[in-house]
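Course assignment 3, question 2. Fill in each field.
Student: A.L.
Task: Predict the tertiary structure for the chain below.
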Amino acid sequence: MHVITPTPAHVVETPNATMTGLAAPSRGSAELSTWTVSMRSGQAGPEHSVTREQVWTITAGALEVTHEGRTRRVSAGQTLVLPPHSLRRIHAPEPFEAIVAMRSDGVVAVPGAEGTRPLPWAQ
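Answer field:
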C-alpha cells in the first residue's frame, strides 16, 4: 500500500495548464497514473494524441474538448473518456479543474512534431 501526498516537485506548469502528479510509477503505482489538471479561462492545450485511454473527471468549472472534429462541453460532475490514438484539444471557456487517470505507459504525439514524449507528471 502507498499513500501519496503531492509536493511542489510533483507540479508541472506549462503555458496552457498546471498538472499535479498523484499516482505514478515514480510514486509507487505499478500500472496507473493519476493527476489533477487546472486551466484558467481562455487557455487551450495543443492538438495531440495519447497512446492510452484517458479518463477525465471534471471537479470544478467546465472544459471544451474537440475530438475528431466535434466539440463538446464537459462540466463539473461529468466524466470524459478519451480513446487512445485519437486527436484531441482541450480548451477552458472558464476555469476548470479535473482529475485524470491513464495507464502509466502512455505517451503523447503532436501533429507535425517528430516522435513522442512522455507526460512528466504521469511518470
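Instructor remarks: The chain has a mean pLDDT of 96. Residues 10 and 70 are 33 Å apart (CA to CA).
Grade: pending
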